[in-house]
Every structure is written in C-alpha cells, then in structure tokens.
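Support request from a user on the community tier.

User writes: "When I paste my structure tokens into the form, the page sometimes reloads and wipes my input. The last time it worked, I copied everything first. Here is what I submitted, just in case something in the input itself triggers the reload:"
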C-alpha cells in the first residue's frame, strides 16, 4: 500500500466557468488556469502521482503545452490513473477537501464523487469529497481563490486478499 497527498490552488477569474469535481457550478465566475482549473481533481491527481512516486501534474501536463489548454481535468485524471495502473497500482480510496468561502458546494458533492469515481473506474464509495470554509480568513476566505487537498491510498493490484478491492 502507498499513501499520497496533493494540494492545489487557483485564483478567481471572472471570464471562466467554475468547474469542481467535473461539475459546472453556476456562480458567475470561475478559476484561472491552463486547463479547466478543477482544483479538487488536480489535488487528487497529485496525490495519486505522489503515492506512485511518479512526480506531479506539472511534470506530466505542463501548462506550456497547448494540448492541455482548457482540457477537462477528468480526462487528465484518467491518464493519471493509467500511469498508476502501469506501475501496478489501483486506487483503494481517496479523500478530498475543497476549501472555499463561496459558493456553497453541498448540493454538488455527490455529483463530484460520481464524476471522479467514474474517471478512475472505481465505485463511488471509494471517493470522499467534502467542502469547508476558512471562516473568512486568508485568500479563500476573502474569495480570491479556491484550494483543495487530497489524500489517497494506492494498493498493489496483485494483492488478492485486500478487502477494500
């Protein structure tokens, strides 16, 4: 078993859609970034890559490459999952926390979980997504950006008696 952590931050952009966990959230603004700036998915990708000792998303999907401009982060998550798979690992579970003062995310959490699980190819009960605020403190509290952190457990695919699989 291997554990990985990930963290991501993107600033607010008035001219973009807000995409979190593959869900378009209507709020009149989005996040700045080369791809769709989906911070919870970016944090999870870094957690998976870290657990497999494969670097980070910047190494695999540089923001200087036009191929990734505007791309869905769920597509990139599929590629990260394939990289971990090639190393002999499968996702045991993942826990993601989205940190923002606004918008409120409670109504979108289940759809985020389903989207992420589908992109990885695991049951939804292996993906946890939570949202929290910083009680109006810091850049997220002031509404200047959104952050996310993730932790994941990768298991060797050849462990047949691992009960989570």
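"...and here is what came back when it finally went through:"
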């Amino acid at each position: 078993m291997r554990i990985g952590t990930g963290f991501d931050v993107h600033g607010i952009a008035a001219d973009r859609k807000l995409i979190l966990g593959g869900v378009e959230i209507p709020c009149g603004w989005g996040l700045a970034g080369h791809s769709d700036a989906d911070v919870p998915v970016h944090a999870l990708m870094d957690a998976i890559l870290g657990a497999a000792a494969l670097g980070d998303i910047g190494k695999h999907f540089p923001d200087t490459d036009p191929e990734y401009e505007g791309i869905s982060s769920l597509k990139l998550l599929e590629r990260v999952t394939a990289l971990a798979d090639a190393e002999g690992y499968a996702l045991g579970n993942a826990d993601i926390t989205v940190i923002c003062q606004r918008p409120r995310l409670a109504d979108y959490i289940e759809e985020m979980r389903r989207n992420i699980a589908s992109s990885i190819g695991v049951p939804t009960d292996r993906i946890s997504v939570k949202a929290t605020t910083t009680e109006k403190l810091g850049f997220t509290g002031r509404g200047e950006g959104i952050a996310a952190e993730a932790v994941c457990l990768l298991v060797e695919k050849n462990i047949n008696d691992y009960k989570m699989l």
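Agent notes: The reload is a front-end session timeout and is unrelated to the input. The domain at 2-158 is CATH 3.30.1330.50 (60s Ribosomal Protein L30; Chain: A;). Residues 161-165 have pLDDT under 50 and may be disordered. Escalated to web team.
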